[in-house]
Amino acid sequence: xxxxxxxxxxxxxxxxxxxxxxxxxxxxxxxxxxxxxxxxxxxxxxxxxxxxxxxxxxxxxxxxxxxxxxxxxxxxxxxxxxxxxxxxxxxxxxxxxxxxxxxxxxxxxxxxxxxxxxxxxxxxxxxxxxxxxxxxxxxxxxxxxxxxxxxxxxxxxxxxxxxxxxxxxxxxxxxxxxxxxxxxxxxxxxxxxxxxxxxxxxxxxxxxxxxxxxxxxxxxxxxxxxxxxxxxxxxxxxxxxxxxxxxxxxxxxxxxxxxxxxxxxxxxxxxxxxxxxxxxxxxxxxxxxxxxxxxxxxxxx
Length: 301
Description:
With 301 residues, the chain is mostly helical. It is 69% helix and 0% strand. It has helices at residues 2-19, 21-31, 52-63, 72-97, 109-139, 154-165, 174-201, 209-239, 253-264, 273-298. The longest helix is centred in the middle third of the chain and has 31 residues, at 109-139. It is globular. Mean pLDDT is 87; it is low at 40-44.
């Protein structure tokens, strides 16, 4: 019961993560827009804010098509660590807490949310080093050439961070990562199960691809709305460059949130929402559709 859930979740997560990586990269670049207003590494005024299509086009023009997959090795490691853990733990808790008094032995919504919070928090703590590496690798191209970190791979990124900044740098922003992961997992996995059960119980559709796509896209929207503010702060804290002898741009998550809102307004916390939902929707669809197919393939094991 236990190991199978981890394997199924891991396979589905890697496929979904790789297929939507370019959208995630564009989201990160958008979330960092305007940050130059109080970042010590920049002396010029921040560039004008642009939308996801413009960001993507400019990215390809300046860095090439392959830049859309910058940091994909970190994405794979992150999905293997973070998503495999959260999907597997959620599956274990769901089977343990399912109430036989409910239809088909399903779990009450409050139990689903609790399972998602626990699984997401543990998964994020495990996967934080890969998350930091992924954000840095995705954001590197926006820096002037002289300031780029130029990590060759996720292994190179983690090795250099450990050597140059200490082991603790691998868990920079971990409180934000854990908070975001708890919100995403609780909203995403719980919402998917809840929407799927509602569709089947009301007889809207049969259990099949249509049900899986509908429930997963709805779950992706819920997860995007709930997680975007924490995601913006997490991205900025993880990406900040600490100069020797100078104070860091942010002293912590709260400081980052306050500076961001003062300089750019409260809606800055929803920066990158369009690519977030554009990525979260397809990612969640790919995740759960793949998961359901993998479950069917492995049901006899």
